[in-house]
Amino acid sequence: MDAAPYAPDAATAPVRRWIGWVLPQTLRARTLWLVLLLVACLAAMLLLTAQAMRLAVVEGAERLAAAEARLDTRSFLPTYRGRIVDRHGRILAIDRACYDVAVPYTVITGQWSLVSSEAETIFAFG
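Structure (tokenized):
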């Protein structure tokens, strides 16, 4: 059985007319779909590039600030225990909000005083 001859439909007629101006007659039927596929790929690449530019350049600062804000979040957790009492009913510990204090190790060892005095000396005498 022979395949039916190629019968172009009305939807591709304008494209085929444009291709007729660009390509010689022998290559028209063979390359029509290849050219359409190439145009579709280029259009997709253009859209993706435009979206990437919009996200990086136009909204970049806002998105960076939002991402950095999510890095360090603080929330207070509700207490889960009640009071801790001894066998006589005296309160030993109470759950309540508290603060955490962080001290660098160089402050504990005293190394910070040497580093800061060295920096002051260099600043004063050059």
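The radius of gyration is 37 Å. Helices lie at 13-22, 25-58, 60-71, 105-109, 111-125.
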